[in-house]
Amino acid sequence: MRRNPDLEHLQLLSVLHYVGGGILGFCSCIPIIHVAIGVTMLTAPQAFAGSAPPPQGVGWVFVIVGGGLIVFGWTITTCLLLAGRFLSRHTHRTFCLVAAALGCLWMPLGTILGIFTILVLLRPSVRALFDGHIALEQWDDL
Predict the structure, then answer these.
(1) Closest CA to 119 of 14, 9, 11, 2
(2) Which of 45, 76, 73, 48 is nearest to 60 (CA)?
């Protein structure tokens, strides 16, 4: 007996959201280096070799921009991981659409994943599944 392609696509997208969320979460940790450099500039400017210590504003730029990138990346990571869970359970379709749109900001992998997720979630048959109009047992009859 052949499974419905919509269910297969949703399951594959769920797995890809978990994988993409893991990769993005790891990559979002890279700016920790910038935050550490910024904190060092603020607390121990004499640690940097040179004729004059760096201005204090430069340290703040490193801390604020690095911290912002970390928070932004971890926010999208959380959305992707939650969307993966919701896709596998066929719940919270609107959240999955928003998470897919946010994932498009992570180029190129997130863009590809986001576009395919949006395309699948916009299908009328998938919408009916998420809305509860069709039970999973009825999918084989379609």
Answers:
(1) 9
(2) 45
